[in-house]
C-alpha cells in the first residue's frame, strides 16, 4: 500500500463513523448534555418540610403549605427531573376553583403525555406552580410539537395572562379550549383521541349533579387513559353526545352515579351509543371509590379475525400487594392532582376518605382483601398508601388507621 | 462530477448523520446524563418508590424509623424498647437481633418511643433493655443468649462478623433484625471464648460468616465447633449485595433476592457505610417492610454495584402495572449521607416496568436494538470502505446505496452486499458493465436501491420529527384521525422521502446508468420510485403503526434506542414486501437488477 492509498483508505474508513458522530454530538449539544450540572443550584430537596407523620413504612404523606405546593409535591414525588428520563413530558394546568372544568384535565396525565396536573388561578400563576414547572422542566410531548405545558379550558378558566407568563418562561404551550365543563371534557377527549388516531371506546360518564363522586374515579384515567365525559342529571349535552357518537362501533359507558345523579332516562338514552353500565355503590364518593377499586370489566371491545381487544376497564384489585391514594373529595384541589400517583410508581386507585374518618365502605374493602400474606420465605405482598394532603385534609388518626390496616399486624 | 451528483453525495452524507444520530444520542445520554439535583423549592423528599428518613443524628433517626414502623394509634404494638449506646457500634449492631427475638424497637440515647407524648398503650407496656458499651464479644454473646429459647426444631443459625471495620459488618443488621439470628463477633486472629460459649449455649449448628477473609481468616474460624459458611464481597458495597443475594434454603437463612425471581416484593435500606448507626436504626423498619441493607459510597453517591442490583431485581408487569410487584427503597440519613441523585436513581431503577422488555434502563429489546445499531454502524463503515477499495469499478450510485442500505439493515444489509458481489461475474452489454446475478438477487439488489435511498430518508425525516416534535391537528368529525401525529408524520415522511429519493437520487442515477435524457429519466424513475417506495412504505409504516401504537406498551421516544430498533425492524418488513414488487420492475426493465 502506498502512502497515498493508505491515507485514502483511512479517510474512507473514518467517513461513516465521523458522520455518525457528528449527528450524535449535535443532538447532545442541543440537549445540553455536556453542560454538566451547572454547579450547585440554590434550594433543592433539603427545603422540604418533614415531620414525624411524613412517612411511615406503609404510608407516605405528600403535602405542602397550600394546595399549589401540595400539587407540586405529587409532581416531585413522581418526576424527580434529575435527567432526561425522569422529567415529565408536559405539565397540565387546571383551574383551582371549578372542579367540573378541572377534572377532565386528569386524563392528560397518561402516556403519551406522561405528566402531572398542577393548579392555577384564573388570572395569576401561583408561585409554587411556577417554581414546580421550572424544577420539573418538562421535556415536551413528542407527539405534539414538544408541547411542555397544557392549559385546560378557555380563558374563563385560565386567563391569557397565565398563558403569557408560562410562555415567558420559555415553555411551549397548548390550550385545550372550552367555555363550560361539558365542552372542556369533550375537547380533552377529542385532543387525546387525535393523538391516538382513535377514540377509546370505554368512557367514564360523570354527572354535573354529583361531580365529587367522579374525583376518585377519574384517577383511573391517569392510569388507563380511557374517556371522560359529563352529562347533566337529566339530559345528555350535545357535545357529549357528539363524542360518544365518534367512537368506532360501540361506546362502553360507565356511569358514576345512582338514579338520583343520572336519571334512568339519561341512562336509557345513552344506550343509543353503545353499552351502559352503572358503577356499583355510586351513591357517594366513598362507596363508589371502594367499589371502583375492586371493579373490573373485561370482555369484547373490538375483534376481527386478525386481532381482538378487550374492554379491560377498572382496577379490579382484591388481593394484598397493592397501593392506594387516600384523598378527601371535599378538598378536591388536593385530591385530583394526586391522580399522578395512579400513573407512575405504585399505580393504585384513589380511595375517598373524610378528614377524620376512614369511611366504612373503604375500611371494609381494605380489611377484606388487603391483609398482607407471606408470598414466599422472606417475601410478603406489601401494600402502600399515599396520604394526599396535610393533616387539615386527612387527619393523622386516619393515616394511623390506614397504616395499621395496610400493615396487617406485621410478621409473627 | 456533476452538480446533481454532488448534491446526492451531500444528501447521502446528511442521511448518515441523522440516521446514526439516534443510537449515538442514546449512548451520549447514558454517559453524560447521569443526573443532577434540580434546585428550587421542594415540598417533599419522598418519591414514588423511595422513602427517606432525613435525620443524620442516630437519636433522631432511630426515633423516626421506630415511629414509622409502629406509629401511635395504628393498632401496632411492641414488647421491648432496646436502648443502644451511640459511641459503640459493636454493641448497637449486636442488638439488631432483639428486633425480632424480643419484638423490640431499637433506639439510640434518649430517643422518644413512638407515641410517648400521648401515652400509647404500647409505650406503657413495653419493657426496656439498656445496653452499654464494653467487650463487644461478651456483650453480643449475652444478647444472643438472652432468654434463649432453643427448641431443637428450628435451625439455630448464628451470624458471625468481624469486630473491625463496621462497613463490612453492618449489612448483618438487616438479616439479624428480620430473622432474629444473633450476631456474634470474631477477631481477626481467632474466635473469642464468649462467642464460642454462646454458640454452644444456643446449640447453634451453623454459622454464617458475613466477612471477607482478610477480616476473619480461615485460621480463626478453624477454632469454631460448628459448621460455617462464608458470604463476602470484594468491597463493602459488593459485600452488601452478596448478602442480599445469598440464600441457604436448607437452613432457612438469607434473603435470596436475585434476578431469578420477578414476582417478589423487595424492599431495601440504602445506608452510608460510614454510618453504622444508620444501619442499626434501619432495623426498626424490618417489622413491616423487611429487606436487606445496601450501601452507597462514603460521599453519598450511588455505586454501580448497588444500582445494578436494584436494576436486576426490578419487577415487571404482565397485563397492567397495577398488578405489581412493587419494590421500595428506604433511604437512611440526610442528603449528605445518601445524595438526592442516589435516591432518585434508585427510585428510577426499582419502578415496576413492562415485563415485555421495555421501560427504564436497558431491557432485552433495547439490547437487541443496540447490538443491531452497532452492527449497522460498523457494517456501513465496512461496506463504504470495502466497496471503494476492493470493487473500484462499482458505479458511483451503488457505492452510495449499499452503505445506506447496511446502515439500516445491519447484518442483513451486509449479507446482501456480500451476495451481490462476492464471486459474481461481470459482463459488458451496451457499453456498460453488469453483474450477473440470479433473478432473486437481481430483485433484492433493485430493492436495496429503493430501500437504501428511500427508507433512510424516511427514517431520517421520522427522527427529525420525533426529536423536534411531531405535528398534531385536532379535527372534529369522522376524518379526525387524519390530524393525528402518526398519520401526519407518515404523510410528511412519505412525501419528503419520495421527493428526495426521486429527484436527488433516482433521476441522475437513471440518466447516468441507463443513458436516458432528463425527461425520460424523470418519467421512468418516477414509476420505479413510486412503485418501489410505496411497497416499502406499506410494510414499514404498517409495522411502525403496529409496534408504536398497538404493540409496545409505551411508545419509544428519541431518548430510547428501541426507537431505532422499531425503525430497522419496520424497514426490514418493508424490504421483504418490496422485494417481489422490485422483481416485477426488474423483469419489465424499469429498474436494473444487475447494477455494478
From TrEMBL, chain A:
* Domain of life from the UniProt record: Archaea
List the InterPro entries.
Answer: Bact_Sporulation_Assoc (IPR051922), TAT_signal (IPR006311)
Q: Which PANTHER family match?
A: AMIDASE ENHANCER (PTHR30032:SF4), N-ACETYLMURAMOYL-L-ALANINE AMIDASE-RELATED (PTHR30032)
Record protein name field? Cell-surface protein
Q: Which organism is it from?
A: Candidatus Halobonum tyrrellensis G22
Automatic annotation (TrEMBL), chain B:
Domain of life according to the entry: Archaea
User: Pfam family of this protein, just one?
Assistant: DUF4396
Membrane recorded as keyword: yes
Entry keywords, A to Z:
Membrane, Transmembrane, Transmembrane helix
Where is the DUF4396 domain positioned along the sequence?
440-591
Q: Does the keyword Transmembrane helix apply?
A: yes
Provide the transmembrane region boundaries. 397-419, 439-467, 479-505, 525-549, 561-581
InterPro entries per UniProt? DUF4396
The protein depicted here goes by the name DUF4396 domain-containing protein
Identify the species of origin. Candidatus Halobonum tyrrellensis G22
Amino acid at each position: 500500500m502506498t502512502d497515498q492509498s493508505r491515507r485514502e483508505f483511512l479517510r474512507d474508513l473514518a467517513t461513516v463513523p465521523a458522520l455518525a458522530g457528528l449527528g450524535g454530538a449535535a443532538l447532545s449539544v442541543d440537549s445540553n448534555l455536556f453542560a454538566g450540572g451547572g454547579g450547585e443550584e440554590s434550594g433543592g430537596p433539603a427545603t422540604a418540610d418533614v415531620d414525624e407523620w411524613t412517612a411511615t413504612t406503609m404510608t407516605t404523606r405528600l403535602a405542602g403549605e397550600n394546595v399549589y405546593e401540595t400539587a407540586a409535591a405529587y409532581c416531585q414525588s413522581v418526576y424527580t427531573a434529575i435527567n432526561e428520563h425522569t422529567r415529565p413530558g408536559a405539565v397540565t394546568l387546571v383551574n383551582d376553583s371549578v372542579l367540573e372544568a378541572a377534572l377532565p384535565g386528569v386524563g392528560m396525565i397518561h402516556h403519551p403525555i406522561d405528566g402531572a396536573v398542577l393548579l392555577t388561578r384564573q388570572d395569576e400563576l401561583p408561585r409554587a406552580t411556577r417554581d414546580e414547572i421550572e424544577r420539573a422542566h418538562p421535556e415536551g410531548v413528542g407527539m405534539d410539537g414538544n408541547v411542555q405545558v397544557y392549559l385546560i379550558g378557555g380563558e374563563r378558566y385560565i386567563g391569557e395572562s397565565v398563558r403569557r407568563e408560562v410562555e415567558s418562561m420559555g415553555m411551549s404551550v397548548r390550550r385545550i379550549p372550552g367555555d363550560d365543563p361539558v365542552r372542556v371534557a369533550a375537547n380533552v377527549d377529542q385532543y387525546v383521541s387525535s393523538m391516538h388516531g382513535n377514540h377509546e371506546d370505554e368512557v367514564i360518564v360523570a354527572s354535573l349533579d354529583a361531580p365529587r363522586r367522579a374525583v376518585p374515579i377519574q384517577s383511573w384515567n391517569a392510569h388507563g387513559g380511557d374517556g371522560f365525559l359529563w352529562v347533566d342529571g337529566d339530559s345528555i349535552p350535545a357535545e357529549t353526545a357528539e363524542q360518544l357518537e365518534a367512537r368506532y362501533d360501540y361506546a362502553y359507558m360507565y356511569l358514576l352515579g345512582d338514579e338520583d345523579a343520572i336519571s334512568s332516562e339519561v341512562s336509557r338514552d345513552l344506550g343509543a351509543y353503545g353499552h351502559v353500565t352503572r358503577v356499583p355503590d355510586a351513591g357517594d364518593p366513598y362507596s363508589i371509590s371502594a367499589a371502583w377499586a375492586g371493579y373490573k370489566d373485561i370482555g369484547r371491545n373490538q375483534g376481527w379475525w386478525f386481532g381482538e381487544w378487550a374492554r379491560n376497564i377498572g382496577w379490579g384489585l382484591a388481593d394484598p400487594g397493592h397501593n392506594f391514594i387516600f384523598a378527601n373529595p371535599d378538598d378536591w384541589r388536593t385530591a385530583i392532582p394526586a391522580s399522578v400517583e395512579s400513573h407512575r410508581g405504585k399505580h393504585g386507585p384513589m380511595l375517598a376518605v373524610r378528614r377524620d374518618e376512614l369511611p366504612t365502605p373503604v375500611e371494609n374493602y381494605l380489611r377484606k382483601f388487603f391483609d398482607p400474606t407471606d408470598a414466599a420465605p422472606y417475601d410478603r405482598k406489601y401494600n402502600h398508601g399515599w396520604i394526599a394532603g396535610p393533616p387539615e385534609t386527612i387527619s393523622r388518626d386516619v393515616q394511623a388507621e390506614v397504616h395499621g390496616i395496610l400493615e396487617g399486624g406485621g410478621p409473627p | 462530477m456533476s452538480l446533481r451528483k454532488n448534491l446526492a453525495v451531500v444528501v447521502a452524507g446528511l442521511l448518515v448523520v441523522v440516521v446514526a444520530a439516534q443510537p449515538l444520542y442514546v449512548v451520549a445520554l447514558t454517559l453524560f446524563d447521569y443526573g443532577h439535583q434540580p434546585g428550587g423549592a421542594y415540598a417533599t423528599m419522598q418519591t414514588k418508590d423511595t422513602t427517606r428518613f432525613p435525620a443524620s443524628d442516630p437519636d433522631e433517626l432511630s426515633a423516626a424509623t421506630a415511629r414509622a414502623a409502629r406509629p401511635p394509634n395504628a393498632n401496632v404494638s411492641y414488647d421491648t424498647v432496646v436502648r443502644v449506646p451511640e459511641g459503640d457500634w459493636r454493641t448497637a449492631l449486636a442488638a439488631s437481633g432483639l428486633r425480632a427475638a424480643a419484638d423490640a424497637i431499637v433506639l439510640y440515647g434518649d430517643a422518644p418511643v413512638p407515641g410517648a407524648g400521648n401515652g400509647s398503650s404500647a409505650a406503657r407496656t413495653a419493657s426496656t433493655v439498656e445496653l452499654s458499651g464494653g467487650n463487644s464479644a461478651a456483650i453480643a454473646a449475652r444478647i444472643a443468649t438472652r432468654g434463649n429459647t432453643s427448641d431443637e426444631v428450628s435451625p439455630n443459625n448464628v451470624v458471625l462478623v468481624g469486630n473491625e471495620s463496621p462497613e463490612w459488618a453492618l449489612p448483618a443488621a438487616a438479616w439479624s433484625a428480620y430473622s432474629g439470628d444473633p450476631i456474634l463477633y470474631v477477631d481477626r486472629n481467632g474466635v473469642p471464648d464468649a462467642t464460642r460459649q454462646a454458640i454452644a449455649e444456643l446449640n447453634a449448628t451453623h454459622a454464617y460468616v458475613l466477612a471477607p477473609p482478610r477480616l476473619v481468616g480461615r485460621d480463626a474460624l478453624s477454632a469454631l465447633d460448628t459448621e460455617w459458611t462464608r458470604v463476602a464481597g470484594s468491597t463493602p458495597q459488593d459485600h452488601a449485595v452478596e448478602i442480599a443475594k445469598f440464600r441457604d434454603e436448607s437452613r432457612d437463612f438469607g434473603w435470596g433476592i436475585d434476578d431469578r425471581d420477578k414476582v417478589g416484593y423487595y424492599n431495601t435500606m440504602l445506608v452510608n457505610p460510614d454510618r453504622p448507626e444508620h444501619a442499626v436504626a434501619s432495623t426498626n423498619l424490618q417489622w413491616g417492610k423487611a429487606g436487606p441493607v445496601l450501601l452507597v459510597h462514603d460521599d453519598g453517591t450511588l455505586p454501580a454495584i448497588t444500582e445494578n442490583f436494584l436494576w436486576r431485581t426490578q419487577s415487571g408487569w404482565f397485563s397492567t402495572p397495577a398488578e405489581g410487584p412493587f419494590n421500595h427503597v428506604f433511604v437512611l440519613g440526610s442528603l449528605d449521607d445518601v445524595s438526592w441523585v442516589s435516591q432518585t436513581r434508585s427510585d428510577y431503577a426499582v419502578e415496576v416496568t413492562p415485563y415485555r422488555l421495555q421501560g427504564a434502563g436497558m431491557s432485552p429489546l433495547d439490547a437487541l436494538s443496540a447490538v443491531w445499531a452497532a452492527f449497522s454502524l460498523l457494517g456501513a463503515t465496512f461496506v463504504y470502505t470495502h466497496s471503494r477499495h476492493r470493487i473500484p469499478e462499482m458505479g458511483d450510485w451503488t457505492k452510495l446505496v449499499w452503505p445506506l442500505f447496511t446502515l439500516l439493515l445491519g447484518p442483513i444489509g451486509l449479507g446482501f452486499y456480500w451476495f451481490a458481489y462476492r464471486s459474481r461475474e461481470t459482463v459488458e452489454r451496451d457499453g456498460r458493465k453488469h453483474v450477473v446475478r440470479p433473478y432473486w438477487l437481481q430483485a433484492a439488489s433493485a430493492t436495496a436501491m429503493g430501500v437504501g435511498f428511500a427508507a433512510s430518508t424516511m427514517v431520517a425525516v421520522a427522527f427529525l420529527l420525533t426529536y423536534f416534535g411531531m405535528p398534531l391537528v385536532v379535527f372534529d368529525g369522522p376524518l379526525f384521525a387524519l390530524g393525528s401525529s402518526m398519520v401526519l408524520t407518515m404523510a410528511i415522511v412519505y412525501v419528503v422521502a419520495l421527493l428526495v429519493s426521486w429527484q436527488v437520487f433516482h433521476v441522475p442515477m437513471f440518466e447516468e446508468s441507463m443513458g436516458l435524457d432528463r425527461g425520460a429519466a424523470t418519467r421512468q424513475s418516477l414509476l420505479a420510485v413510486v412503485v418501489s417506495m410505496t411497497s416499502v412504505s406499506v410494510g414499514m409504516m404498517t409495522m411502525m403503526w403496529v409496534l408504536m401504537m398497538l404493540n409496545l406498551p409505551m411508545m419509544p421516544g428519541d431518548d430510547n434506542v428501541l426507537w431505532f430498533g422499531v425503525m430497522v425492524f419496520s424497514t426490514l418488513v418493508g424490504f421483504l414486501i418490496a422485494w417481489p414488487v422490485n422483481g416485477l420492475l426488474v423483469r419489465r426493465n424499469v429498474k436494473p437488477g444487475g447494477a455494478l
